[in-house]
Design a protein that fits this description.
heterodimer, A: alpha/beta, B: alpha/beta, Aconitase, domain 4, seven-stranded mixed sheet
């Protein structure tokens, strides 16, 4: 019997010839990521009395949430993380200037097809955009992997998602994922791995694939994959310069637990309504809803391509006077590219304000909402109270829908502009 | 962890996400007591205080979905809650709960049967729950998980294994 991508990666990383769903293995990750939570893992390590790491080169640290520090406590916590990185010679350490951990690690060439990556963030699933198995764990478990090099993992079932046709105008990977999450529910794929297939997948940019594997988390997946191809090689060519990798693909006779088919031609721009991501509606059902703030940010949709999509709509236009527009590029690399190309000038001239790269308003760091306010966001979560007041509302959408809506001051179909 | 847990039930619905359990702005803390002061506060300012008088949470599908924040489990422990029983859990919360020493049990039949304020008795080692004179069962935890729960979580396990 053949194996799926998740099965092959978990077999390899646990030194087994083959594994099957439900089996529990001791796996050795290639990379353990911790973000702003790093100080908590350091505290656990101190309490455990540990002084040795399994392999400092398998550790990556990126200070992305609440950065730069807002309070003395944040500052002390960040200092603890920096001191740890220096003391133990962690080379993959990225400070408050770098941006969102996931994007930074992929840009820096620390993620390759076939890798197993765990980290203190649920959206580690995004590494599947490059064919790596990424999944979230807590900070205590990060400490455990730092010290022992391994963790137990249950081999998931794999769901095949077959995409037919292509996106029509104004429709993006974000709309596809909101459609899927709405259809399957927040626990539609709990504990499962998903793999995306279809003729159009080879044409999708790595940026769109990141959006897909990132948002897959919101239907409960353990991991998600876009199988590596020519686009993956092209993305990695300039980034993975000092290591070799082997692409991992599902066998032709691999066993999928089920197949979900999506006809992309019929897909419309989608919006997730308060207060759950699964509460999705086609744009026509929510168009006209008043908005007070728009947020172009997060690991879901603040990549360079996302900024370009928004800028193409906002070029030569001004946002509605009642709307605040927060631009938070996903990483320093993305921000620099957007500065050089003029994309940032376009966004700022339209009425936006720029913040430093990082998680920003998605995780409630800046851009807080007051009672009764409404934010339309390109992020991946709209949970009650996530951006401040529990009497505020968050809607989620693509960068195109965000840009069109910012101009009109109400949720707007990007195809209307 | 006590091997037999007795107490009063508080009931939640489906998809209780970790932002509801403990909002992101309090992740600067790791102490159970500090986190408990703000646990579930987005549901109402009086909710954290009210929940302290309950011992066992019973919930619907997908409890703990969303963020990988470990403090979701810590905050529940800080409230004095001794176990969470749900129809199903999100995977990261499931790991975090066991790693924090919080017993976490999948038992859909109990969700259907239990009412808020019911008194239930959970036998962790034997995999049984008594509620309104009826017995519900759940699969026994593997020994490795029982060991983690008995030690109070992964941090203590690490400490002992390094001795």
């Amino acid at each position: 019997m053949g194996m799926t991508i998740a099965e092959k990666i978990l077999a390899k990383k646990s030194g087994m010839p083959s594994v099957s769903p439900g089996q529990i293995v001791d796996a050795y990750p290639d990379l353990v990521m911790s973000h702003t939570a790093t100080w908590r893992s350091v505290s656990v390590m101190e309490k455990a009395g540990a002084t040795k790491l399994y392999d400092p080169d398998r550790i990556a640290i990126v200070l992305d949430h609440i950065a730069p520090a807002k309070t003395e406590k944040n500052a002390a916590d960040q200092q603890k993380s920096r001191n740890f990185a220096r003391k133990y010679g962690i080379k993959k350490f990225y400070d408050i200037d770098a941006g969102i951990a996931h994007l930074v690690l992929m840009e820096a060439g620390h993620v390759a097809p076939g890798d197993l990556i765990v980290g203190t963030d649920s959206h580690c699933t995004i590494y599947g955009s490059l064919g790596a198995l990424g999944t979230g764990i807590g900070y205590t478990e990060v400490t455990s992997v730092w010290i022992t090099g391994k963790l137990w993992m249950k081999v998931p079932e794999t769901v095949r998602i077959q995409l037919h046709g292509g996106f029509s105008r104004g429709v993006y990977a974000k709309d596809l994922m909101l459609h899927l999450i709405g259809k399957l529910g927040a626990d539609g794929c709990t504990y499962e791995s998903v793999e995306f297939y279809g003729k159009m997948v080879s044409g999708l940019s790595i940026s769109e694939r990141m959006t897909m594997t990132n948002l897959a988390m919101e239907m409960g997946v353990k991991c998600a994959f876009v199988p590596p191809d020519a686009k993956t090689k092209e993305y990695l060519a300039s980034r993975l310069t000092n290591r070799k990798y082997e692409e991992v693909h599902s066998d032709p006779d691999a066993a999928f637990s089920r197949e979900i088919v999506v006809d992309l031609e019929k897909l419309e721009p989608m919006v997730a309504c308060p207060h759950e991501v699964e509460n999705t509606k086609a744009i026509g059902d929510v168009a006209g809803t008043r908005i007070d703030q728009v947020f172009l940010g997060s690991c879901a949709n603040a990549k360079y391509d996302d900024l370009v999509v928004a800028a193409n709509i906002l070029q030569g236009r001004k946002i509605h006077p009642n709307v605040r527009f927060i631009i938070t590029p996903g990483s320093k690399e993305i921000m620099l590219e957007a500065i050089k190309s003029g994309v940032l000038s376009t966004l700022i001239e339209s009425g936006g304000t720029l913040t430093n790269p990082g998680c920003g308003a998605c995780a409630g760091d800046g851009g807080i909402l007051a009672d009764g306010e409404v934010c339309l966001s390109t992020a991946n979560r709209n949970f009650l109270g996530r951006m401040g007041s529990s009497k505020a509302e968050i809607y989620l959408c693509s960068p195109a829908t965000m840009a069109a809506s910012a101009i009109r001051g109400v949720i707007t179909d990007p195809r209307d502009l | 962890m006590e091997s037999v847990i007795r107490g009063r039930v508080y009931k939640f619905g489906d998809n209780i996400n970790s932002d509801i359990i403990i909002p992101g702005r309090y992740l600067i803390y790791i102490e159970p007591e500090k986190l408990a002061q703000h646990a579930f506060e987005v549901l109402g300012a009086d909710v954290p205080g009210k929940l302290r008088s309950y011992d066992i949470f019973v919930a619907g599908r997908n409890f703990g979905c969303g963020s990988a924040r470990e403090q979701a489990a810590t905050a529940i422990l800080g409230l004095g809650v001794k176990a969470v029983i749900a129809c199903s859990f999100a995977r990261t919360f499931y790991r975090n709960a066991i790693n924090s020493g919080l017993p976490i049990i999948e038992c859909p039949s109990l969700y259907d049967a239990a009412r808020e304020d019911d008194h239930v008795e959970v036998d962790i080692a034997n995999g049984t729950i008594q509620c309104q004179g009826q017995q519900h069962t759940f699969p026994r935890f593997p020994d490795s998980v029982l060991q983690l729960l008995e030690l109070g979580g992964l941090a203590e396990y690490l400490k002992q294994s390094l001795k």
